[in-house]
Structures are given as C-alpha cells and as structure tokens.
Automatic annotation (TrEMBL):
Organism: Babesia ovata
Cross-referenced PANTHER family: DNA EXCISION REPAIR PROTEIN ERCC-1, EXCISION REPAIR CROSS-COMPLEMENTING 1 ERCC1
GO process annotations (BP): double-strand break repair; mitotic recombination; UV-damage excision repair
Keyword set, alphabetical order: DNA damage, DNA repair, DNA-binding, Nucleus
Subcellular location as annotated: Nucleus
GO MF annotation terms: damaged DNA binding; single-stranded DNA binding
Protein name (Swiss-Prot/TrEMBL): DNA excision repair ERCC-1
The ERCC1-like central domain, residue ranges: 14-127
Protein family according to the UniProt entry: Belongs to the ERCC1/RAD10/SWI10 family.
One cellular component (GO) term of this entry: nucleotide-excision repair factor 1 complex
Any one Pfam family match given in the protein's UniProt record, by short name: Rad10
UniProt entry tagged with the keyword Cell membrane: no
Amino acid sequence: MDPEAATQGEKHCIVVSPRQRGNPLIRHFVNVTCVEGETHYDYKLTESIQALFLSLKYHRMHRGYIGARLKHLRQHRVKNPFIVCQVDIEDPQDTIAEITVITFTLGYRMLLSWSARESAAVLEALKIDGHKGLEFLNPRLEQPHLQIVQRIIASIRHVNNTDSIAIASRCSTVKQLMQIKPEQLENIHGLGKRKVKAILSAFNDTFF
C-alpha cells in the first residue's frame, strides 16, 4: 500500500489505517483496491461508513483493547460505524454476546466473519454497496427497533427468546431497559435469580 496515494484514492478504494498493516485480510481484497492512510477507525469505506476490526482470539488475550478504541472514538463518531468481528475461537457464544451488548449500547453495528477472506468480503460489501443503504447486509437491519432489542437481550447468557420478549415488553425505551430494577426483573415469570444476575451484569458491568 502506498501512503501517498491515500488522499487521491479515497473515492475509489478502501483506506486502511497503519495499525492494520500486516492484517491477513488485506490480501483477500478482490473487487476493491486499498491504500494506507489516516483514519481513526481501521477501515474507511466512505466518509460516513467506517469500521473497526476485532479478532475474537485477540479480544480474549487483550480484554481492554476494544474498550480503549471505542473510548477514543467517542470524539470521532461517523454516521454508520461498524465492528467486523472475526470468529476465530472455539465456543465463541459468550464472547460474541459480550461484544454485542457493548456495540449495541454504543451505537455500533457488529458484523461477524469466520475467516480473513470473509472479513475482506464484508468490508468490500460495505464499500461497494453501502451507498444503496445498509439493509443489503442483513435483512434483520430492517426489523423494528423492538425486535432488535429483543435479540440483544436474548444474547445474554441464560436468557432465552421468551424471556427477552417479556423483558422488552416492560420497557418503552432502551434507557428504561438499562435502568430496570432487580425487583422488576424478579416479577417477570420465568426469570430466576441466575437470569436476573446475568441480565443486571450485562447492563451494569463496565466494558473496560
């Protein structure tokens, strides 16, 4: 990648942050070119669509990394921020659920991939088709806000879809959901102490 070509090529290629130098996914770009350039994110697809990359294996070894990045990016938010999570560990469910809560709370969309090639394909899709609207990535993005919230709740360990529907029905906003009290949860049929503890932990424990 030629750093000097970054400014000239921004409209026609993906701008890659120097911190991603050496990431194997870069070798798998097929339908776009890429240049190394300055961006607060890892990959700048357009002015309004930018993405971070996170390997779940790296996340397990460096728990504070994604929190520090997101904290820094509070001052540099774009309209459509993404986190591309590469699933490269066994039994990833709890780790994915943890990151899902973080990304949803902070307004990021998380996209999963299972290899460097798939990660590159996701970024290419954002670059090539992002201007058409983000619905092309996943039909679920078109679902009503309530259904999105229900899926987030159901991603918490021990909580099932029936529980998530019951919990979401008690709140009219995400703010109310995040401020829900233990006694309110305990009054919901099917929620025992273990589930209540898991839900409160997901809502209240620090990310980093």
